[in-house]
Amino acid sequence: MGILFKLNKSVYSNCKSYVYKSGGNSLLDNLFDAFWNICVKFVPKSITPNLLTLLGFLCSTIAFVLTFVFDSQNKKYDYIYIYAGIFLFIYQVIKKKYIKTYYMIGIRII
Prior knowledge:
Layout: H1 9-17, H2 27-40, H3 49-72, H4 78-105
Helix pairs in contact: 2-4, 3-4
Subcellular location: Membrane
Family: Belongs to the CDP-alcohol phosphatidyltransferase class-I family.
Main location: membrane
């Protein structure tokens, strides 16, 4: 809408005051919290949030493609589901590291 129509200044002030709030915690969040805190220490501060988002997107896309391609052939490749699960776990870790890292640094996630 901002490209075709001029936006009000109140819209811009709403964007500046926006703060991400997660949907809540599950039972596994409490178990994995120590693991995620350890993983956050290995992320350099020079890595941008966009790169972590891209890596997470690539992991979930690879998991989908693996599942879709090998499932459409109607053959039993059990190891493909293990690979897809690993990629989805990596995606989940990257996403949680992304949120934890940039809350610690003070960058707002939009």
